[in-house]
Amino acid sequence: MSQPRVVVGVDGSPLSRAAVVQAAHFASTRGMTLHVLHAFAPDLPMLGFGELADRAQVTRHGEQLLRDAVASAHAAHPDLTVTSALHDGYASRSLIASSQTAALVVVGVAGFGLLSRTSLGAVAMQVLTHAHSPVLVVGHTTSGAPEPGGRVVVGVDGSAASLAALRTGVREATVLGGSVDAVHAWEPTGAADPTLGSASSWEEYVAGVERVVDEAVAGLRPEHPDVAVAVHVVRDNPLHALTEASEGAGLVVVGSRGTGGFEGLHVGATALRLVGRSACPVLVTR
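Predicted structure:
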């Protein structure tokens, strides 16, 4: 049986170089292989008719990007098995196809030409929306390998996807030798929000969230007995709460959909908006 692999997309941008570092660390610490992918679509309108219209030049450029990425991965993890591929076509299509056999896909939040880091690039958006595997999105060029003992933040809203994300967060914290902050943000939808009516209290609400988290983590305790899990229930917008919690954290983990999703939705609005605002990489689980 072949080893599971991590796939990372590279385009030569600073964020894609940071993504390679993250992907290599993830693969190495979990006994996986790394596959570095670069794809090029010659009909992209922004390319014009200059140097990049030369097919041979484009190929040489892509091959050099791959060599640089492989060298970067090996510099950090010399024993890591790294493969690479140069694909024709759009990067998002290649990454989504590769996700069918990947344990994880890693991308930068945006490539070249984006004015604001808080905006989600087209490739990251499409991969997040359609990938078959979890996706790790790197939003900062300074994002190096996570520090040992780092804090893992998990967004919990009670949905099945968020509880699966919580279980992933506990496993990630074990690898990092760190702890988990389970963050639940309650935002009233009106003056008489039915989720916190007069028959209940804030204390009861918090206790209920804590019970849900404890039950989700309980089954993992035999394998992860030493991971400390703290529950934080706040009156706040979920996006704002998770963005604040990401400061100083090594990783944020969220489910691809929360309680606000509807049938057929591939990825929730909070996850899509968070990846461009988080102070650390965001792992979107499935």
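Summary: The radius of gyration is 20 Å.
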